[in-house]
Amino acid sequence: MTLTASQYLFARLYGYMLGRRYRNTPEQACLDAITPYIIMVGVPATLVVVVAAAALFPQLFSSKGWIPWVVVPSGVAMYVLSRGLLRYARTPEIAEAFTSPASRRLTMATYSVVLLGSIFAAGTLAHVLVH
Predict the structure, then answer these.
(1) Where are the domains of the chain?
(2) pLDDT digits 0-9 by tens, 23-57
(3) Residue 56 has what pLDDT?
(4) What is the pLDDT of residues 54-87, one digit of tens each?
(5) Closest CA to 107 of 117, 98, 115
(6) Mean pLDDT across the stretch 99-118?
(7) How many CA atoms lie within 13 A of 55 on its CB side?
Protein backbone atom coordinates (compact mmCIF):
# COMPACT_ATOMS: atom_id res chain seq x y z
CA MET A 1 0.00 0.00 0.00
CA THR A 2 1.45 3.33 -1.06
CA LEU A 3 0.74 6.21 1.32
CA THR A 4 0.61 9.89 0.47
CA ALA A 5 2.84 12.17 2.52
CA SER A 6 -0.13 13.16 4.67
CA GLN A 7 -1.15 9.54 5.25
CA TYR A 8 2.45 8.59 6.01
CA LEU A 9 2.72 11.31 8.64
CA PHE A 10 -0.56 10.25 10.22
CA ALA A 11 0.47 6.58 10.11
CA ARG A 12 3.70 7.43 11.98
CA LEU A 13 1.77 9.29 14.68
CA TYR A 14 -0.83 6.53 14.84
CA GLY A 15 1.96 3.95 15.20
CA TYR A 16 3.47 6.00 18.00
CA MET A 17 0.15 5.96 19.84
CA LEU A 18 -0.40 2.24 19.21
CA GLY A 19 3.03 1.51 20.73
CA ARG A 20 2.14 3.06 24.08
CA ARG A 21 1.32 1.00 27.17
CA TYR A 22 -1.92 2.90 27.73
CA ARG A 23 -4.74 4.13 25.46
CA ASN A 24 -3.36 1.88 22.74
CA THR A 25 -6.52 0.35 21.31
CA PRO A 26 -6.95 1.27 17.63
CA GLU A 27 -9.81 3.66 18.41
CA GLN A 28 -8.03 5.45 21.25
CA ALA A 29 -4.69 5.59 19.43
CA CYS A 30 -6.35 6.95 16.30
CA LEU A 31 -8.14 9.68 18.25
CA ASP A 32 -4.94 10.57 20.11
CA ALA A 33 -2.92 10.76 16.87
CA ILE A 34 -5.22 13.39 15.40
CA THR A 35 -4.12 16.22 17.70
CA PRO A 36 -0.39 16.03 16.92
CA TYR A 37 -1.27 15.55 13.26
CA ILE A 38 -3.27 18.79 13.32
CA ILE A 39 -0.33 20.53 14.98
CA MET A 40 2.19 19.19 12.45
CA VAL A 41 0.08 19.96 9.39
CA GLY A 42 -2.37 22.67 10.37
CA VAL A 43 -0.14 25.10 12.22
CA PRO A 44 2.48 25.38 9.44
CA ALA A 45 -0.29 25.57 6.83
CA THR A 46 -1.96 28.41 8.75
CA LEU A 47 1.37 30.23 9.00
CA VAL A 48 1.83 29.93 5.23
CA VAL A 49 -1.63 31.39 4.67
CA VAL A 50 -0.89 34.29 7.04
CA VAL A 51 2.45 35.04 5.36
CA ALA A 52 0.85 34.95 1.91
CA ALA A 53 -2.02 37.18 3.04
CA ALA A 54 0.42 39.60 4.68
CA ALA A 55 2.42 39.81 1.45
CA LEU A 56 -0.68 40.36 -0.69
CA PHE A 57 -2.74 42.51 1.68
CA PRO A 58 -0.40 44.21 4.20
CA GLN A 59 -3.09 46.72 5.20
CA LEU A 60 -5.15 43.89 6.74
CA PHE A 61 -2.45 43.32 9.33
CA SER A 62 -2.14 46.90 10.57
CA SER A 63 -4.11 46.03 13.73
CA LYS A 64 -4.71 42.90 15.80
CA GLY A 65 -8.27 42.56 14.51
CA TRP A 66 -7.15 39.98 11.93
CA ILE A 67 -6.23 37.35 14.55
CA PRO A 68 -9.70 35.86 15.14
CA TRP A 69 -10.39 35.95 11.39
CA VAL A 70 -7.42 33.63 10.85
CA VAL A 71 -7.42 31.49 13.98
CA VAL A 72 -11.11 30.55 14.13
CA PRO A 73 -11.55 29.50 10.46
CA SER A 74 -8.25 27.63 10.45
CA GLY A 75 -9.24 25.79 13.64
CA VAL A 76 -12.62 24.86 12.17
CA ALA A 77 -11.00 23.74 8.90
CA MET A 78 -8.46 21.59 10.73
CA TYR A 79 -11.21 19.99 12.81
CA VAL A 80 -13.39 19.23 9.79
CA LEU A 81 -10.50 17.85 7.74
CA SER A 82 -9.23 15.72 10.62
CA ARG A 83 -12.56 13.94 11.06
CA GLY A 84 -11.74 11.87 7.97
CA LEU A 85 -8.79 10.38 9.82
CA LEU A 86 -11.10 8.45 12.14
CA ARG A 87 -11.54 5.81 9.44
CA TYR A 88 -8.03 4.58 10.23
CA ALA A 89 -9.24 3.26 13.59
CA ARG A 90 -10.61 0.34 11.54
CA THR A 91 -7.28 -0.24 9.75
CA PRO A 92 -4.50 -0.10 12.37
CA GLU A 93 -2.25 -2.16 10.09
CA ILE A 94 -1.22 1.03 8.26
CA ALA A 95 0.64 2.01 11.42
CA GLU A 96 2.18 -1.33 12.42
CA ALA A 97 5.51 -0.46 10.78
CA PHE A 98 5.85 2.53 13.11
CA THR A 99 5.28 0.92 16.52
CA SER A 100 8.88 -0.14 17.24
CA PRO A 101 10.79 1.82 19.91
CA ALA A 102 13.22 3.24 17.32
CA SER A 103 10.40 4.36 15.05
CA ARG A 104 8.53 5.86 17.97
CA ARG A 105 11.63 7.86 19.01
CA LEU A 106 12.02 9.20 15.46
CA THR A 107 8.34 10.14 15.35
CA MET A 108 8.55 12.01 18.67
CA ALA A 109 11.76 13.78 17.61
CA THR A 110 10.12 14.88 14.35
CA TYR A 111 7.01 16.04 16.18
CA SER A 112 9.11 18.03 18.67
CA VAL A 113 11.12 19.73 15.93
CA VAL A 114 8.00 20.69 13.96
CA LEU A 115 6.25 21.93 17.11
CA LEU A 116 9.20 24.05 18.24
CA GLY A 117 9.76 25.30 14.69
CA SER A 118 6.10 26.31 14.43
CA ILE A 119 6.28 28.16 17.74
CA PHE A 120 9.41 29.97 16.61
CA ALA A 121 7.91 30.81 13.21
CA ALA A 122 4.67 32.03 14.78
CA GLY A 123 6.60 34.23 17.22
CA THR A 124 8.76 35.64 14.44
CA LEU A 125 5.74 36.25 12.25
CA ALA A 126 3.90 37.98 15.09
CA HIS A 127 6.93 40.18 15.75
CA VAL A 128 7.24 41.14 12.09
CA LEU A 129 3.53 41.88 11.70
CA VAL A 130 3.32 43.98 14.86
CA HIS A 131 6.44 46.06 14.16
Answers:
(1) 5-130
(2) 999 999 999 999 999 988 888 888 888 888 888 88
(3) 84
(4) 888 888 777 777 888 888 998 899 889 888 999 9
(5) 98
(6) 93
(7) 6
- Alpha helices (runs of H) in 57-100, residue ranges in sequence order: 67-82
Give the SS3 label for residue 39: helix
**C-alpha to C-alpha distance for 38 and 50, rounded to whole angstroms:** 17
Cβ of 57: how many Cβ atoms within 10 Å? 10
pLDDT for 81 equals 85
How far is it, in rounded angstroms, from Cα 97 to Cα 49? 33
DSSP the chain: -PPPHHHHHHHHHHHHHHTSSSS-SHHHHHHHHHHHHHHHHHHHHHHHHHHHHHHH-GGGGSSGGGHHHHHHHHHHHHHHHHGGGGGGGG-GGGGGGG-SHHHHHHHHHHHHHHHHHHHHHHHHHHHHHH-
Q: Report the distance separating Cα 48 and Cα 94, nearest Å.
A: 29
